[in-house]
User: What shape does this take?
Amino acid sequence: TTLGYHRRLRERELRAANLEAQLALAQVQALKMQVHPHFLFNTLHAVTVLIREDPAAATRVVTRLGDLLRLTLSRATTPQVSFRRELELLTLYLEIERTRFHDRLEIAYDVQPATLGALVPDLILQPLVENAIRHGVSPNAGTGRIEVRSRRVGEWLNVEIRDNGAGLTRGHVRPDGIGLTTTRARLERLYNDQQELTLANLPEGGCVARIRIPFQLTSEDRGEPLVRPPLPATSDAPLAAAGG
Assistant: This one.
């Protein structure tokens, strides 16, 4: 019958949509796994240097690395987490970096409380911060500064990673490393064209990486305190639109 034909057609369409969703999820997870060994290699290299220069600092880094690996492994198959949980992981990573740079690295948070329950791709901030440290802090003989900002702007979540380095050279496009490349690909897989990731110079100097994704609240985040809260400053002022 016509009714039966349309029902079977609808069932085939649903099965095809489910398979497509499962494939997209597998692709996102595979991309996220590319970041893990890259990050681990860089951290182990830092430990190798510290063992010679500051054994006590090396011990602290190994302890933080263990905490961070436990978090990342517990979320290995999770494509998205609350922004609160993402900050928890980022804070552990930045503790490692601050040990490595001693007094040459300052960290600041300007996080709007309304954004803490928003869904974000798991392990999305660390590659952007690593890029800021590599290009903005490491070449800088003075004190490097990394600032993490977040705002809800209408139906969008805007996140910024700022540094006070030399910024992008005029007329030169900074090549994306594995971190930025996989970050762009993961955003495209999760949000299609409803996302933006841009790099730009700041008027006061330095560089900013901006992410804009749809604002979605997680049903799992109940507002528990972070294991190592970054004690962010808060503000209701909106961020500049991504890419603006």
About this structure: The radius of gyration is 20 Å. The helical segments are 2-53, 55-74, 83-101, 125-137, 178-191. Confidence is low (pLDDT under 50) at residues 222-244. The first helix runs from residue 2 to 53.
